[in-house]
Amino acid sequence: MSVELDVFVVNTTIMDEEVYQLWLDGYTVNDAVKVRMEGGVLEGCEASAEVLHSDTMDQYRTFQMCERLLHSPVKLANQLLFQIPPHRQVMLIERYYAFDSVFVREVLGKKLSKGTKKDLDDVSAKTGVTLKSCRRQFDNFKRVFKVVEELKGPLVENIRQHFLLSDKLARDYAAIVFFANNRFETGKKKLHYLTFQDFAFCAGQLISNWTVGALGDYNMVEDMDVDLEKEFLQDLKELKILITDRDLLDQHKSLVCTALRGKTKAFNEMEANFKNLSRGLVNIAAKLTNTKEVRDFFIDLVEKFIEPCRSDKWTAGDMRLYLTHYTNSAHVLDTFKHQVVWDRYMGVIKSCILKMYHD
Amino acid sequence: MPGKLKAKIVAGRHLPVMDRASDLTDAFVEVKFGNTTFKTDVYPKSLNPQWNSEWFKFEVDDEDLQDEPLQITVLDHDTYSANDAIGKVYIDIDPLLSSEAATVISGWFPIYDTIHGIRGEINVLVKVDLFNDLNRFRQSSCGVKFFCTTSIPRCYRAALVHGFVEELVVNEDPEYQWIDRIRTPRASNEARQRLISLMSGELQRKIGLKVLEMGGNAVVGYLQCFDLEGESGLVVRAIGTACTLDKLIPGSEIKETLPSSSSPPPFSPSKLCSRQSSSSDTDLSLTPKMGKTPPPSSPFLTLCLLLSSPPTLDLTEFPFFTLTCFPPGFLVHIGGVVSARSVKLLDRIHNPDEPETRDAWWEEIRQEIKSHAKALGCHAVVGYSESTTICEEVCILSASGTAAMLNPRFMREGLCVYSRFDDASPPSCGFCHIPYDEFNMPFPAQLTYCYHCRRQKVPDVLFTTIDLPAEAAVTGKGCLIQARLCRTKKKAQGEVNATAISNLLPFMEYELHTQLMNKLKLRCMNALFGLRIQISVGENMLLGLASATGVYLSALPAPGGIQIAGKTPSDLSYDQHISTMQKRINDTIAMNKELYNIHPPECIEEVVGSPIPDRQRSRLFRSTSESSDELSELDLSHGKKDAFVLEIDDTDAVEDIQSLLTDAPMPAGFYSCNTEVMPGIYNWTSGLQMFTSVRVYRLNNANLTNQGLNKIFTDLCENLLKSLYFKLRSMIPCCLCHLNFTVAVPEEELIQVRRHTPKNTSPILFIFPINILVSIRELEFGENEEQLQFSMELSSSSERCSPLPEVRSRSLRSTRSLPCGAPVTVVKMTPLSFLPRTRIVKYLGIINMFFIRETTSLREEGGVSGFLHSFIAEVFAMVRAHVAALGGNAVVSYSMKECVFMENPNKNQAQCLINVSGDAVIFVRESDQEAIPPLITCGQTSTTGADGTT
Fold first, then answer.
1. Tens digit of pLDDT for each residue in B224-239?
2. Of A200, B205, B425, B931, which is least surrounded by CB within 10 A?
3. What span, in angstroms and rounded, lies between the C-alpha atoms of A14 and B776?
């Protein structure tokens, strides 16, 4: 005797959050049954593994049918096929679009193309995230990317409206889209210590300060939040004067040193390294017009600034102090005319470096 | 030209991509009613077209309005080739024809295609302008209200109950017409859907006509069924109870929805209407068949009945009521279950306009039922229902009901014949008192004085097909009791097969009855309500499934225990075996008493004194009732077969004991019953959840014995229940109400298809479609803190499962953040006739829908389970959409009448037919302070603190 067909349909869709997570994590039905058994779900119920299997199958089928709707979450709210209470819908969407930070770290900054998708089995092997789950997450990234690519208006808001995600998750997706669009290098060994949240924070800074949308004018072009503002990048070249003009460089150095003296243990190293560090930061700024160099933005920050400071054993406090005075002192330089660009540049650099300066 | 139907196509959304090149669709809509068709403009290149069409107007007869559905077809415009159909929506406009129901149909409907399922949605507006038609000879019956609910609908008052109405229409099944060979499956499915829609419209209209002639204005307990007889045709039949209903004025205190027993409504005899009714009966359906059945009586006969006092039961009209729940005081006495079955050979329906054969068959059965009722000293049958099971050309017709005496005040005069209505008998036990003559009993039964009033005689057990009367006094809680039975049968054809089946039937009924009785005793209960016995025929087996809700009626004597006796008492080990069995049974009884909280106050001494009094001893086997090869009948209702003593020598008895003891107990926190309300539980929450479960099993071994099959069948049912308990564990404490099992042994075609699979030589399938409502019971706050916390957890869980108020407020809130229009209305579905803790303010009309779904890519759709799962979900969605479009927020008395599933995995194909029905309503929530729904409150007469345990 065997079960040929076994379905259970409810008017108001019942979903077990635990099973949903197992499904999202790419467990097969049999594996999910095993996990649930070990989790002790049968305790206290007079049920057999058979019952558990049938229940898991039912739920998996429901999720599979819902998946199509989850691809455009707005539809989930006004579709008629499943009667799902709104708070459940929110849960379904939020969990479906959630991702593993180990996974996202692997594909961050990569082109969301078929080629990358083909390599997902390597990513799966490396991260321990099942291939099925990797594919879902990758497809989510790609789907969000494709939708917002063609939309005007602020990136985070677009994502939140079209995918009904929470603010936090929408910001994370904005970061992913931003990284994928600008193809920032994040995979180098030197960057391995950085978490997704570090990058997401930096992306947020870049989006809100360096893009066209940052100016608050949303009627102009598409992609305003996704691309860095060309004019601003051109202007950054002007900052080179800070390192090419010897007087200006010395003046800047003395101003910073005066301010820092006695306030930190690392003062000597700061004084000794000032010119190198300053050159590093300003060179990064000057190179950003070149798309290729943009990709190396983070690796440059680490190599040119963070690593030297780390080897000199600056504390996070030292870093904050240094960057504050380094930024502010430039205002006092009377021959330096690019205050606005400088602030726009340094504001982001400062917060990025502070976020990235950890072990 | 008595009516103008107007339709407007507003918009579409989520349409499928029909043009691969552009990933878009050029959609337009055809609106068809009768033979008139209108078209909208093509809305190019959009998946969310905004047609905003003009009002399409159809000027039609109201006869057509009742019969025809409005047919809306969405198509994709193609310049070079034929336009592709996206899908269809059929809208039944019947609800718009009654002034008290809906006034407009407006909303989003799923666009349904029989091959692809739901493909987007369409927003439609429909209105009807009716002109008064004073033509006396009209064929339409607009305005007659239909209710699936088997009680007087909540916002109405029964002014008069007229009685039984029935009708059937037959036609050829399009699936079996020659044209089916050349048309596409889609065309064939659509033809079938349309035909059935037309036939049910026609049926409803004809029944409505009968009601009007009887002077009524509504049909309550409307039960419509399809018999897919295959080659021989398609039968749509319906029964119901004609009533005159008065609408209760909203605003006045409606808590007491039913007329209170103190002031019964003014029931006036409906003079000449009855004459017309009987004549209409003969005119419309029981057309000439002289010689076969008793000749149709002339109108004068009924008239005589009304005038002269010694009336007989030979009324042409059947004193049957499809109601299962009655106003207080309506039921005077209950005799017991009456049922009749008849095995027929199907024959092609030659002339659809004269369905006399089928009519004659039912007529025969109804006569049978009537005479059974008469034998029980009753003049009426309540809780009446009819069903069929078909296997190839053999068809079993069944009818069952509960013989009863009704209160003359509630009835038309001609009916209250043997009224011995005793005003003195209290309502809580009166219905238990025997209606028949004590010294001239139709069968041997044990009578005792009523344990409640001590004045009248009561039987020792009572079986009924109705719901537990609200005023009945019960002890403890009730529970679901099932008897399951399988019998093998030789493969045969035609008449031989029919004879074999009819020979088996009485034995099956007898055994099911014995099982029920034993299980009832084992649970220490003495009455069954909502008894439903289903017998299904397969090619080489018969299946019997009886479900009922057991209860301990305080008025009836306590049931004795079950004693096992051995025939050969010489063997010592054998005796030991018997005594261990006996002990197990006694333990189970004691446990069940605890579980169901049954502590009968007095009368214990009687049981303790001699657990099995001599007078109750009876051998298990006895001769079965007579049975002819065509008609078999049994009265099993009345405690004559109280199998208190099981003789273990009997192999059947061993089997019985096995099945008795293998019934798994319900997990803590669960209750189940197949009636509307759970006896002994009064504190319901408003949270409810309706579900349908379908299972198909395949038997691997064709050469199974009866015992083997029985065991398998029992295990299947038990497993299904266990599975339900597991799935619903988060809702504890909860009660599965209206558990409704259906079994089927699908036909040969299927099995033949399966024969290609090498592993299984001759498999058999079972199907179990069930509709169940789960309602959550809220625990009363306990005294100590621990319990308090416990119940607080529970109430939060019930909120999770039943978030109606939350849903609504939340959905309103979320609309603001959502960019996309209004959210979907939440529509509750329930097989109950009410929603706990809510008040139904308006009935919007009957929902009666029939769908076919077919696939030629079964594997791609997730196999049979995936296919059926999505189909059932789609059916739910379409029901909800129709209710919402009528302006409703719930379907009550919902049931899935038919679920026929066929597959051919080798061709990667499957087909499924589903018929659902129910009443669309608007309900409002009672404020939470009014804790208990009115109907249930009045039932708490003698039970004190029966609830609140666990």
1. 988 888 777 888 999 9
2. B931
3. 15
- For residue B627, what is the DSSP state? B
Could you say which of A5, A46, A52 has the minimum Cβ distance to residue B664? A46
Whole-number Å distance between alpha carbons of B174 and B169: 15
Q: Which two tokens stand for residue A251?
A: 């003046």
* Residue B319 burial (CB count, 10 A): 25
Phi, psi dihedrals of residue B633, rounded to the nearest 5°? -145, 150
Q: Say which of B690, B722, B873 has its CB closest to residue A65.
A: B873
DSSP code of residue B133: -
Instruction: Report yes or no for ipTM above 0.95.
Output: no
Give which of B837, B822, B835, B934 is closest to B891, Cα–Cα: B835
Query: What are A's interface residues with B at a Cβ cutoff of 8 A?
Result: 1-12, 14, 16, 44-48, 50-52, 54-55, 57-58, 61-62, 64-65, 74-75, 77-83, 85-87, 161, 164
**Rounded to an integer, what distance in angstroms lies between the CA atom of residue B671 and that of residue B907?**
43
SS (H, E, C) B659-671: HHHHCCCCCCCEE
Say how many C-beta atoms besides its own lie within 10 A of residue B284's C-beta. 16
Cβ neighbour number for residue A236 with a 10 Å cutoff: 23
Contacts of B16 in chain A (CB under 8 A): none
**Three-class secondary structure of residue B171 per DSSP:** strand
- Which of chain A's residues have a Cβ under 8 Å away from the Cβ of B687? none
Q: Which of A99, A112, A318, A288 is nearest to A206 (CA)?
A: A288
* Helices H / strands E in chain A, number of each: 21, 1
Sequence-ordered list of residues with C-beta below 8 angstroms from that of B792, at least 6 positions apart, any chain:
none
pLDDT in tens, A252-300: 888 888 888 888 887 888 888 888 888 888 888 888 888 888 888 999 9
CA angle, B5 then B10 then B13, to 5°: 135
Catalogue the long-range contacts made by A331-336 (C-beta closer than 8 Å, 24 or more residues apart): A332/A255, A333/A248, A333/A251, A333/A252, A333/A255, A335/A245, A335/A247, A335/A248, A336/A241, A336/A242, A336/A248
The alpha-carbon gap from B776 to the nearest alpha carbon of chain A, in Å, equals 14
Q: What is the largest CA-CA distance in chain A?
A: 92
The low-confidence residues of chain A, meaning pLDDT below 70, are 1-2, 44-46, 214-224
Query: Token digits for B563?
Result: 């004693």
User: How are beta strands B56-60 and B3-13 bridged, if at all?
Assistant: antiparallel
Distance from CA of B887 to the nearest CA of A (A): 16
Question: CA geometry: angle at A186 spanning A182 and A192, to 5°?
Answer: 165
Report d(CA B61, CA B139) in Å as an integer.
10
Sign for the pseudo-dihedral over CA of A13, A15, A21, A23: negative
Strand arrangement of the beta sheet that strand B890-904 belongs to: B828-829, B890-904, B909-925, B838-855
With b meaning 16 or more CB within 10 Å and e meaning fewer, what string describes A195-222? Answer: bbebbbbbbbbbbbbbbbbbeeeeeeee
Sign of dihedral through CA atoms B8, B14, B15, B19? positive
Would an 8 Å CB–CB cutoff place B690 in contact with chain A? yes
Burial class (CB in 10 A: 0-12, 13-18, 19+), B866: buried
Round to whole Å and give the CA distance between B97 and B141: 9
pTM: 0.82
Give the tens place of pLDDT for each residue, B630-688: 333 343 433 333 445 555 555 555 666 666 666 677 787 788 888 887 887 777 777 77
Rounded to a whole number of angstroms, the CA Rg of chain A reads: 26
3-class DSSP state for residue B638? strand
Using CA atoms, how far apart are residues B668 and A115, in angstroms rounded to an integer?
55
Work out the burial of residue A257: count CB atoms within 10 Å of its CB; fewer than 13 is exposed, 13-18 middle, 19 or more buried.
Answer: middle
For residue B126, the cross-strand partners are B7, B105
